[in-house]
Amino acid sequence: MTAPLDIEGPAAPPRSNGELVFSEPWESRAFGMAVSLYEAGAFTWPQFQAALIARIAAWEATPARDEPYPYYRLWLAALEDVLVGLCAVSTDEVTARAQALAQRPPGHDHRDDPGHEHHHARDRSQS
Question: Per the structure, how many domains does the chain have?
Answer without folding.
Answer: 1
